[in-house]
Design a protein that fits this description.
Length: about 475
């Protein structure tokens, strides 16, 4: 407290404004219409927080800060330029760096404060160190799995949960011992080392498909460890920013689990995302019907109502601008075109909304899952563009399917289904999609961007 009372009032006001901006950022980010303001508010808040900290008279030497700034920029700038589809692993790396920083600061504080450290400070410092260390290795593992540097397959063995929870329990016992006896300094490295191992072991049994949920959980842990660091350093700004981060990460993880119809414990302990044994191979021999861009354009032009369902493939192909042209061409002909958005389409929450907003597709044409499902039975054509798992009817009907129970977009209720994808490859969950073998389904084989482009050209050609 004394540190805060003695603080320059200018710095205090800077921190207060930064805090307000962080809260506004989260509020504005919750709607596509204000999301850009949210990003600016967050950036400005962070600039003020860093600026205010740099003015602190407690800083005796700026040289190390300058080195840190240069190193951080060298790492940060390229990280900011990755493709949108790589944002989940990029985010995981950011969490890893944040957690590493928290752990290093906590370690420095432990040795600076020495055995005179108070019971309260040692408790929050232990929480900071444990959460920081496990988030560091856990996030690196998650990034590695998403980038496919590490095997995506869950690796499980007997007694795994017992071993993992045991590691966590030992870390907590060490923390309690250090709170009671801070002079037992030799225990401190174990309080870092064991959670570092736990972070790796925790991610090993979780499949690649669950990594985005894990990343948002890591977001929450990184936030909580930063909040704990705020108590150690007596910084209200850090406490508030960390708590906001911790809470929003947690809410997001819960929402994502719900959208995939999985319980939280199932994500963490369930070993989902396992590559399916080729039991579904039987389907591969089944015939599918395919159509050309010309035929597809004809069917779309004759339709009264079309719902476009975008997915990961649209994102990879960067086809959103072509999709906008298709929307324009069809709307001009009087076709009612809407978009059905699944909450976990793509590879991160809000992925489709961001892409469609980038292409200036009006927000009011975007239907969420429930709205779209209410409209499919009255829809002439459901046009699936690079989406797969989120349209898989096995989730409704096949109790043996790994995605059974996941809410999906009921595209198969539309009169005709057309699916743009390059071949018969499965999606993220690695499973076959019975949708493709239905009588009403036409496969439009090709890259999303070039196929949609061909359809737009056909529509323009036939117009004149
Ligand atoms: P998906 O099931 O992964 O399928 C994407 C499809 O796009 C693939 O089958 C692929 O087929 C096709 N594709 C790839 N590149 C293409 C291109 N250039 N042109 C055209 N098609 C292309 O995607 P989704 O339906 O969007 O489902 C998302 C999956 O991610 C779900 O399993 C979901 O649970 C999981 N997930 C998402 C989140 C999230 O936050 N969004 C979080 C956790 C998990 P071809 O190779 O044959 O072209």
């Amino acid at each position: 407290m004394t540190a805060l009372l003695g603080m320059n009032p200018f710095i205090q006001v800077t921190y207060l404004v930064a805090t307000a901006l962080f809260i506004l950022a989260l509020k504005w980010l919750s709607s596509p219409a204000t999301a850009r303001h949210g990003v600016w508010a967050g950036e400005l808040g962070m600039l003020l927080a860093v600026g205010g900290t740099l003015l602190d008279r407690g800083i005796v030497d700026y040289r190390f800060i300058a080195i840190g700034l240069v190193l951080g920029s060298i790492i940060g700038v390229p990280l900011g330029m990755v493709h949108m589809t790589a944002v989940p692993q990029r985010t995981a790396l950011s969490h890893a760096f944040g957690a590493l920083c928290v752990t290093l600061v906590g370690t420095a504080e432990f040795y600076l404060q020495g055995p005179a450290i108070s019971g309260f400070t040692m408790s929050v410092l232990s929480m900071e160190i444990i959460l920081g260390s496990l988030t560091f290795t856990g996030s690196l593992m998650a990034a590695g799995k998403l980038e496919e540097i590490l095997p995506q397959r869950p690796i499980t063995y007997k007694g795994q949960n017992f071993v993992n929870l045991g590691l966590l329990a030992i870390s907590i016992v060490i923390a309690v011992a250090l709170v009671l006896h801070p002079e037992m300094r030799y225990l401190f490295p174990f309080m870092i080392g064991i959670p570092l191992v736990f972070g790796v072991m925790m991610i090993v049994p979780i499949g690649g498909a669950d990594m985005p949920t894990v990343i948002s959980l890591m977001n929450s842990y990184a936030g909580l460890s930063a909040a704990a660091m705020g108590f150690v350093l007596d910084s209200k700004l850090l406490i508030i920013a960390g708590a906001l981060d911790g809470a929003s990460g947690f809410i997001l993880s819960v929402n994502m689990s719900k959208a995939m119809n999985r319980s939280f414990t199932n994500v963490l302990f369930g070993a989902f995302g396992e590559v399916q044994p080729k039991g579904s191979a039987a389907h591969e021999e089944l015939p599918v019907k395919s159509a050309s861009a010309e035929e597809a354009a004809g069917i779309l032009a004759a339709a009264g109502k079309v719902i476009i369902v975008p997915g990961y493939g649209m994102a990879v192909a960067q086809a959103q601008h072509k999709v906008r042209e298709l929307y324009d061409a069809l709307t001009k002909r009087g076709v009612d075109v809407k978009f059905g958005i699944h909450p976990v389409a793509g590879r991160m929450p809000g992925h489709m909304n961001v892409l469609l907003a980038e292409a200036d597709i009006p927000y009011d044409k975007l239907l969420d899952m429930d709205e779209a499902n209410a409209e499919f039975p009255q829809t002439d054509v459901a046009l699936v563009i690079g989406a797969n798992d989120v349209t898989n009817p096995a989730a409704r009907s096949d109790a043996g399917s790994p995605i059974f129970g996941m809410p999906i977009l009921d595209v198969d209720k539309a009169r005709t289904v057309m699916v743009v994808k390059r071949g018969m490859s499965p999606g993220f969950a690695g499973i076959d999609n019975p949708l493709y073998y239905l009588d009403k389904t036409l496969m439009l084989f090709g890259d999303a961007k070039s196929f949609v482009n061909d359809v737009v050209r056909e529509l323009a050609g036939s117009h004149h």
